[in-house]
Amino acid sequence: MTAELIIMNKSGIALAADSAVTVSSHGTAQKVYNTANKLFSLSKYEPVGIMTYDNAEIMGIPWEIVIKRFRDKMGNCSHKKLESYIEEFFQFLKKDAFDQVCIENYVRRELHATIKAVLGIVEEQTNEILDKKKNPSEKDLEETSKRVFGKLIDEISKKKDVKNLDENQIKERTEEYSGLIDELVKNELKPFPFTKQQVEAFSSVCLYLTVLGPTRTRSGIVFAGYGTEEYFPTAHAFTISRVINEEIDMVDDDREEISFSNPALLRAFAQSNETNSFMRGISDRMNKYLRKDVKKVFDNFLGENLVDMLVDDGILDNNKREDCAKKLKKMGGGIFSFLADSIDKYSFAEFTRPVIDAVQFLSPKDMATMAETLVNLESFRQQVSLNHETVGGPIDIAVITKGDGFIWIKRKHYFERDYNHQFFSNYYNTHE
Question: The pTM is what?
Fold first, then answer.
């Protein structure tokens, strides 16, 4: 996981990202390294930056490599709007970032993970059934696993729901990868007693899960900066899962731009509990508790307990219990909605609005300090808890302004600056 922050006003943008990355391999315990780069300039020459969070790779290639390849390819080109930089970056992802070998490796990895997960469920459910039998035979094991496997395939097949893809895209993907997936599935399932029909059905399920359905891993990316014709900054966030057949499976999360009517913005990405507590005066966990559990209190007390008391005391006729319970539960929902709205209004007026009012007048340097402080707060909370520290390490901080471009305030290097003058002297040589 990670903690990232973006603060914007009319003067510029401040971006901050921690360095923690959580890794695991072959089902081993997770380990956190504080060495990841998540904040980059998207251009060496123009005032545009990009942050990544969640999965540090896309299709098995680190985002850092993809972004820096795009930056070199773009050179000193500029665009009138930030959206044009984003469009060019997405075109690069579709056309140039991944070759066929990379995509096939991705399909193999995803397929292997899918098969492993499904077989794990089959084994677990089979053992649960056979544990109830005395001295199960090999035939019992075979028949039970077949039955469990077939039932699981049916359940997954019923949940198929391909969104954001038209019929031609679905046809292209299935034609492109059905042969590869059939072959891989048959090889993986050779040691198991499943029928030919079950293996074919499973191949269809794997095709859906691997190249059409929801993915196991996703990456968040945030673009921020200026086009040549934009006076005020813009930020645009996306969630990307994979790139197949020159199509990006992604969700357009949010777009924010500074304007005369919207003079300031503060937004946290990934882990944001402490930032939201600062901005709203209430933590996400407490807010969730109020929304969910306190509502249950109103429903249970007014819809059940109060009715029982009225009936027991003879105030309410038992025949009217159900009708009265419905009315009181509805009344409880209304009271809760009023309280929730009141809390939201108070939170905005007393906490959020004063911060936003102050942010609109901060200098770029002050915004950078604020962004670093809030990321540090997220990290410190984890340091003093017993949970895994999934936020931590050096904090990279950058400021983007219309006149000065992308400026690093703090940046970690894996090498000593004094020993590597050639890196800094050659940084712009590619396009001279």
Answer: 0.87
